[in-house]
Every structure is written in C-alpha cells, then in structure tokens.
C-alpha cells in the first residue's frame, strides 16, 4: 500500500557500520560545505577497509566476515563538480533505480537534484526526503494505474509517454499532468539499450501529438535515452536533431514545448574504446545551445555517472580448488574445459552475479578484481608483487553460471584472503536473497568533508 510522505520514515532502515574515516552527519541534509582533498581520498577508504577487516578477523559472529561495501559520499561531490563544469545548463535528475541507498538520495537532494522515478514506491521514497514534487519526473511510459493515481494525489506532474493508450489512461486518471513525449533513439552503439521497448518512432509523432491535443492534455516537451555506455557520439547529435524537429512539429498542434530530457547512460568512469565524458558533453553542449533556446529547460538522468565511482565491493575468498592434471583428464564437459583453460586455480568468493556483480550479466564488462588482503595483511592499492596464475573466480551461490570472471591473473590465494572491485556503485546494490545470502552491509566514508 502506498501512503503519503507524512507517514513515511525520513531515513529507511539500512545496514551500516559505524566506521567512517570522516564521519557523516546522520541528519536530513548532507553537509555541502566541502573542501577538495584528493590526496586523502585513498587513505580515507583504506582506513575504513582496515577497520572492517580487523573486526572480521577477530570476530567469530555469524556473518561478520560477509562481503561489504565502502561507499564514498565525497565522490558524489566530485562528480557533481565535473557535471557542472562541462554541462552547466543541464539539470541532473537522479534515477533511483541506479542505486537507492538512502544516504545517496539524501546527499543529492541537498545538492538540489531532481529525481527520476519509475514506480509509486520510488516516488514515495523520494518524497520522504523532503524533495518537492516539482523536482520529480515519473519516467515510465506505461504506468500502473495505482501509481498514476498516487502521483496525481501528491502533485508529481512531470511524466513520460510514448503511445496513445497511455494518453487515454492519463486523461482518465491525471488530466492535469505535464507530459514529455519519449522518442525512439538509436541504441545500437550502446552496451545496454531500451529502444526495442521504449520510445515512439518519428513516424508516430504527429498522431500522438494530435491525440494529446484532442484529449486536452498538456504536452510540455521531449525525452529520449540513447542507452548506457554509448560508444558513438553522433547518436546524440542525431537524436537531438530529432528532438528539435518534434519541438517544431508541436507548434503546429498548438503546443509550446519548454522541457527537454536527454536521458542517461553516461559513463561514470572513462573507459578505453569509448568517448570520454568530456568529449560527449562537448557535443551535447554544442548541439543543445544550437538547437534549443535558453527558454527551454534541459534535464538529464546521469545516474551511473554520479554513483558508479562511489562504491567499492569487498569480498572474501571462502574456498579454493586446485585441479591436478589427472583430475582434469577425468573431468567431463565444461568443467574440464574451464579447469584446463585456467591452469587449475579456481576460487570461490562470498559475493556473486546474483548480488553485487549482477551488472556483469547486462554489460559484459571486464571485471577488474584486485587483491585486498593476503595472509592477514591489507594490500589495498599496493598491486601484486608475486607470481600470478590464470584463475577463475566463482560466486557464492549454487547456480552453475555464477562466475565473476573466468580469466584473471591472481597470485596463489587462500581461504580468508580478500578481493575488491572499484567503480561498482551503479546497479550493484543487491536486491536478491538467492540461496539465503543477505545484502552486503555498507560502510560510509566522506573523503571530501573537512572534519
């Protein structure tokens, strides 16, 4: 059941440790008077990791040695400064689905962000942080009726559509809504696209605008999404040109558009073979300034851009299997092929594809696991100084496809050693309790606040 913000707790319960290199104030507003201190960032994170590893080593309590997260809220501010530098005209709207951690929402709300929600429950969550309804966009083109009614009751007016049936639904349940027509964008050059599911083709635009006009609905602008990890900047150019065409077409139906949503999918960390954020932003800035007057309010959903660099996942090696040559010959099928290919070193960790590493299934990125603790010594950011072996790292569930990586160079590890993966803040928060495993606990640090 959805209830209004007055009945919703300000901070939903979260699992966290009271460990912070620079303590975070536990109040309703993240402290925004921050001082840049890049040199101490790694030390903040290392201190938090060492404290947690020490407690995991000393304690025998159930779950004390579970995998855990280090979430650096200060990195949000770094990303925000970067966004403001390269895309100062465009207001960021954070998509809750990317990482719903309450302290992230709290921090971004204090920085004046808007929020992108796709369900009534996400809207309810954002309202509980005191976010104004005008700063929320209901960005689902096929909305559940009860969620649409909830949005109406609490004044969430901005929302998207891409089909005529949705217009009739909105007419019945929320005729005063402010609508954005989501147009189709070419996502063929993106790691993960939504074009097959969402977005109206240009051939359908006139019919949709005509229907909206006949129904007396208020269409305010255009939205699109080119997909996550776009490798071709020209896609933004083409889609922005199409958006401009829709703006012009709308005038013929009596609409005066003043809102453009350019979507998300921006990489939080620059990667080889893809345009840098600076390069992408340069094209977007030039195109938007050319095609859209300053009277048009432009928003975006750079959620991955903001949160990907904030999170480090730390997981423990809980088992090891070294396959001998004789065992390899006796194994059958895939197991034999894996063992032969990877020279007999197989490790099992207490996290996996059904938890923090779920995005491996979506994006097929190379997972850069690094050594965190070996033989009781924390070696965070120290690199590997001994012989390495081609290895396989398996996840902790009984599902046979739960393999984090099937080809990684690691030294000879033992049960009790730890590994870590950086830049895991986007879509890494586990939503699964498959096989009874709990969601990892979070340790918060703020490498920017000058305490």
Descriptors:
elongated, 18 strands, eight-stranded parallel β-barrel, 451 residues, 30% helix, ten-stranded mixed beta sheet, alpha/beta, 13 helices
Would you mind describing this structure in some detail?
- With 451 residues, the chain is of the alpha/beta class.
- It has helices at residues 41-58, 74-86, 102-110, 120-127, 145-153, 164-173, 205-214, 234-251, 277-291, 303-307, 325-330, 333-341, 359-363, and strands at residues 16-17, 68-72, 91-95, 114-117, 136-138, 158-161, 178-182, 218-223, 259-264, 297-301, 311-322, 345-349, 370-374, 377-378, 389-394, 403-410, 418-421, 441-445.
- Strands 1, 2, 11, 12, 13, 14, 15, 16, 17 and 18 form a 10-stranded mixed beta sheet that branches. An 8-stranded parallel barrel has the order 3-4-5-6-7-8-9-10, surrounded by 5 helices.
- The protein contains 13 helices and 18 strands.
Mean pLDDT over the full residue set:
85
Largest sheet: 10 strands, mixed
User: Proportion of β residues?
Assistant: 15-25%
Any idea what the radius of gyration is? 24 Å
């Amino acid at each position: 059941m959805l209830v209004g913000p007055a009945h919703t707790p300000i901070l939903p319960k979260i699992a966290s440790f009271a460990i912070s290199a620079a303590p975070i104030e536990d109040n309703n507003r993240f402290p925004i008077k921050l001082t840049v201190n890049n040199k101490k960032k790694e030390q903040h994170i290392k201190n938090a990791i060492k404290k947690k590893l020490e407690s995991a080593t000393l304690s025998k309590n159930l779950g004390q040695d579970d995998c855990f997260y280090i979430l650096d809220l200060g990195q949000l501010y770094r990303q925000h400064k970067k966004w403001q530098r390269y895309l100062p005209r465009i207001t960021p709207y954070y998509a809750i689905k990317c990482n719903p951690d309450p302290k992230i929402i709290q921090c971004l709300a204090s920085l004046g962000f808007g929020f992108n929600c796709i369900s009534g429950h996400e809207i309810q969550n954002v309202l509980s942080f005191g976010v104004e309804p005008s700063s929320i966009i209901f960005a689902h083109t096929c909305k559940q009726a009860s969620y649409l009614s909830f949005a109406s009751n609490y004044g969430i007016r901005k929302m998207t559509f891409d089909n005529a049936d949705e217009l009739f639904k909105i007419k019945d349940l929320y005729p005063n809504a402010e609508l954005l027509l989501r147009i189709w964008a070419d996502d063929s050059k993106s790691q993960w696209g939504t074009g097959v599911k969402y977005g109206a083709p240009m051939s359908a635009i006139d019919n949709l605008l005509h229907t909206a006009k006949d129904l007396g609905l208020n269409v305010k602008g255009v939205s699109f999404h080119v997909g996550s990890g776009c490798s071709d900047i020209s896609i933004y150019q083409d889609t922005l040109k199409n958006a401009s065409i829709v703006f012009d077409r709308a005038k013929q139906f009596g609409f005066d558009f003043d809102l453009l949503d350019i979507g998300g999918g921006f990489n939080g960390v620059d990667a080889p073979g893809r345009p840098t954020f600076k390069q992408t932003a340069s094209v977007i800035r030039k195109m938007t300034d050319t095609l859209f007057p300053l009277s048009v309010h432009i928003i975006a959903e750079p959620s991955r851009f903001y949160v990907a660099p904030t999170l480090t996942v730390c997981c423990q090696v809980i088992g090891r299997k070294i396959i001998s040559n004789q065992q390899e010959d006796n194994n059958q099928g895939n197991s034999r092929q894996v063992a032969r290919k990877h020279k007999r070193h197989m490790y099992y960790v207490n996290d996996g594809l059904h938890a923090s590493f779920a995005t491996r299934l979506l994006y097929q990125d190379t997972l850069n696991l690094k050594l965190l603790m070996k033989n009781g010594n924390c070696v965070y950011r120290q690199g590997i100084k001994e012989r390495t072996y081609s290895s396989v790292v398996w996840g902790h569930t009984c599902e046979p496809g739960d393999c984090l990586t099937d080809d990684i160079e690691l030294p000879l590890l033992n049960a009790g050693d730890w590994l870590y993966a950086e830049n895991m803040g986007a879509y890494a928060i586990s939503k699964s309790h498959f096989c009874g495993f709990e969601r990892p606990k979070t340790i918060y640090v703020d490498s920017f606040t000058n305490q």
